[in-house]
Each structure stands twice: as C-alpha cells, then as structure tokens.
Write a structure and sequence with these properties.
heterodimer, A: mainly beta, seven-stranded mixed beta sheet, four-stranded antiparallel beta sheet, globular, B: 49% strand
Chain lengths: 118, 108
C-alpha cells in the first residue's frame, strides 16, 4: 500500500523560499504523476503543479514564476520549492499521487501546515 | 483556465436522504476528466469518482457520478452519517488543473 509523507519547516519568513519534501513508501516513484496541492485555512483546494516520473513538469499558471518541483528517484521522493513567499502562501500542503491520463488523484499525504510569518 | 462552479454551497439533509451535487465548468472538459473528492475536518481529501463516473477503489456504490461537457453531478443515493462532509469537483482535462469551491453536506 503506497503511503506519502510530507516534511519540511512549519514556519517560513516572508520573501524566503518554502521547501517541502514528499517521501513515497510502499511503491516506486518511477511511474505516475506526483502533485502538490495546498489549502489555505478555511478555504478550498488549489493545485500547485506536478512532476511526471519522466521529469516533465506542469505548474499552475498563477504560481508558475515561483514554483519548482523536482524528483529524486534514488530516494523515492519529490520536492516543492516556492520562492518569495508571503502570508497568502500560508496553507496545508499536500503531496498527492495521480495515475495515468484517465485516473484521479488517489493517494494523498496527511498534509503539512506551513505558516508564512516574520 | 477552466473555472468550476459548484452548487449549492451548502446542502442540509438527513441520513437516508438523497444528495445531488452539481459542478458546472466554464468550458467543456475534454474526455470527461472530472473527479470528485470528499473531505472531512482535519483530514486529507479522498478520491470518490474519476473520469466523471468511475468509482475509485473501495468507494461504496451509493456514490455515483454522471455528466459530460460542462455539467457534472455527484449523487449520494442514501446518506450515511459518515457522508456529511465537504465535496470538491476537480478537472484535469486541460493543462491547468482546477478545483471547484466545494459543497458542504450538513445535517438538517
């Protein structure tokens, strides 16, 4: 059974870079789409972007200039970097697996809360 | 970017009743690449439906999805106490994936 676990700082200062890692266990990262989704407090879900197992990426246009998602197949994990953060980036961040074109986002991490504050 | 509008914002129902949730897209979703998720407080979302009408693994058959083009529906045939939650639709038919704002199903 595939499990995913986010890790990283819970507090980031404004203008700095938010960095999170998602470790995948119980399955290989050498397949599927690997996503980051976030949810501000009391609000809905926002797709940040994905990295395909081949290394190709696709980002939300509203965040594209600040987002980098990378893959580490040797460690079976992938990462999110979000630069120049502001308090509006405060959210629960989820790492999520998605199957092939037709399939949905079927495996979610438990989420990690990141607060942007000085 | 495809905008998804969910209605109603809140649905007040009793256990055993039927729930009908709507998701309308600002443009046609190719291949009916539309998913539904359930989220309970403090938990990650759970995939219910993908491809507009395919149930995800382990999802009870009281959950069903339908629709195509710009209009999609999630139906819960008979509400169980554990079904009271927030439901989101999400499209992955365009290059930029988007979510609806959610529908809360609450106890009447």
């Amino acid at each position: 059974q595939v499990q995913m676990q986010e890790s990283g700082p819970g507090l980031v200062k404004p203008s700095e870079t938010l960095s999170l890692t998602c470790t995948v266990s119980g399955g290989s990262i050498n397949s599927y789409y690997w996503n980051w989704i976030r949810q501000p407090p009391g609000k809905g879900l926002e797709w940040i972007g994905y990295i395909f197992y081949t290394g190709s990426t696709n980002y939300n246009p509203s965040l594209k200039s600040r987002v980098t998602i990378s893959l580490d197949t040797s460690e079976n994990r992938f990462s999110l970097n979000l630069s120049s953060v502001s308090p509006a980036d405060t959210a629960v961040y989820y790492c999520v697996r998605k199957g092939g074109f037709f399939y949905g986002m079927d495996v979610w991490g438990q989420g990690t809360t990141v607060t942007v504050s000085s | 970017e495809i905008v998804l509008t969910q209605s109603p914002g809140t649905l007040s129902l009793s256990p055993g009743e039927r729930a009908t949730l709507s998701c309308r897209a600002s443009q046609s979703i190719s291949n009916s690449y539309l998913a539904w998720f359930q989220q309970k407080p403090g938990q990650a979302p759970r995939l219910l439906i993908y491809g507009a009408s395919s149930r995800a693994t382990g999802i009870p058959d009281r959950f069903s999805g339908s629709g195509s083009g710009t209009d999609f529906t999630l139906t819960i045939s008979r509400l169980e106490p554990e079904d009271f939650a927030v439901y989101y639709c999400q499209q992955y038919g365009s290059s930029s994936w988007t979510f609806g704002q959610g529908t809360k199903v609450e106890f009447k």
